[in-house]
Write a structure and sequence with these properties.
Layout lengths: L8 H6 L11 E7 L6 E7 L2 H7 L4 E7 L8 H24 L9 E7 L10 H8 L12 E6 L4 H4 L3 H12 L3 E10 L8 E5 L18 H4 L3 E11 H18 L8 H4 L3 H16 L3 E2 L4 H20 L7
Parallel strand pairs: 4-5, 4-6, 6-8
Antiparallel strand pairs: 1-2, 2-3, 3-7, 7-8, 8-9
Length: about 325
């Protein structure tokens, strides 16, 4: 079976017949915010069967889809930041309930900006850290302590990110890690308009940088929440979607009806295999990003950093 690359649990869910809620070991919930253009989907992978079916680790994946994020509307971006803050607080509360994080008034959060600042589609994490208001150095007894690090990539440092973080965690003793990463999507319409929050951490092969090692509670010793935004999509996936539209167009036109029969009779896996076999020898495993990705990443870096501030700093007015 040929898998179309995606880091989004919501897109894995969409690959199943029906609404995706029929998969054993997977729970699905969808809702929209009142008077808002934010759609939320929660995919909870409950057991090993669900993890195998979805191709993702057991845990909770909350996806916020907000098409208007592509615009520079500051009020809308702040609304999305507020929703991100609310979902972050819910996950932290659940971690405390499970006693994975100590239920205390003061909490130390280490925010990690993953990615390469020199590669725009992969620079979301470092840019978020550039906007983050850290306070660990102030030593004023705050209820919430934020510290942050941009560990770089192995080609720059010669070290695995997990190695760097284990040393930092050993010395600074945070209660929780929040990792920010750029992701790959299945659909081009989700680039820069979708935020995924998960309690599973970062796993090998995920993200634009295709991480070599995991950043999880098992590997780091403390819980890891991950916030990601898709910034690239595989060229084969774009062609696959284009062919689907072409087949429908040909079938609906009397003069061209039947011209797409060969492709139409291939199942989605066979279509994707054919496209990959045609594209990859010529172009390699090509990924595509929008022409305005620099502006998109810059805007979203402020949105995500503000969401973190609103979740942990009361003065930012999170509800």
């Amino acid at each position: 079976m040929f898998e179309i690359r995606t880091d989004l649990a919501v897109e894995e869910k969409e690959s199943f017949p029906g609404d995706g809620g029929e998969v054993t070991g997977v729970s699905l919930r969808e809702w929209s915010k009142a008077n808002s253009k934010i759609k939320l989907t929660e995919v909870a992978i409950l057991d090993a069967h669900g993890a195998r079916a979805m191709g993702k680790p057991k845990g909770t994946y909350v996806t916020m889809e907000a098409r208007a994020l592509i615009r520079g509307d500051e009020d809308y971006h702040r609304e999305v930041a507020g929703e991100l803050a609310m979902q972050l607080k819910k996950m932290v509360k659940e971690l405390k309930r499970q006693k994975k994080v100590a239920d205390k008034t003061n909490i130390h959060v280490l925010v990690v900006g993953l990615g390469n600042p020199s590669v725009t589609p992969d620079s979301l994490g470092p840019q978020v850290l550039g906007n983050l208001k850290v306070n660990r150095n102030m030593d004023e007894g705050e209820d919430v302590v934020l510290s942050g690090i941009v560990p770089g990539v192995m080609a720059q440092t010669g070290m695995e990110t997990a190695e760097i973080l284990r040393g930092i965690i050993r010395e600074t003793r945070p209660d929780l890690v929040i990792a920010i990463d750029a992701l790959a999507a299945r659909s081009i319409r989700r680039l820069g308009t979708t935020i995924q929050l998960t309690d599973t951490g970062i796993h090998p092969g995920s993200g634009v940088g295709n991480h070599r090692h995991s950043l999880t509670m098992d590997s780091l010793g403390i819980p890891v929440l991950a916030i990601g935004v898709p910034t690239v999509v595989g060229a084969a996936a774009i062609v696959h979607d284009t062919i689907a539209v072409l087949i429908e167009t040909l079938a609906n036109n009397m003069e061209t009806r039947g011209m797409g029969d060969f492709l139409e009779h291939l199942n989605p896996d066979e279509q994707y295999q054919l496209i990959s076999e045609l594209l990859e020898p010529e172009f390699g495993a090509l990924y595509v990003t929008p022409p305005d990705i620099d502006q998109t990443v810059r805007r979203l870096s402020y949105t995500i950093s503000e969401g973190i501030h609103m979740a942990f700093y009361p003065l930012f007015g999170a509800s």
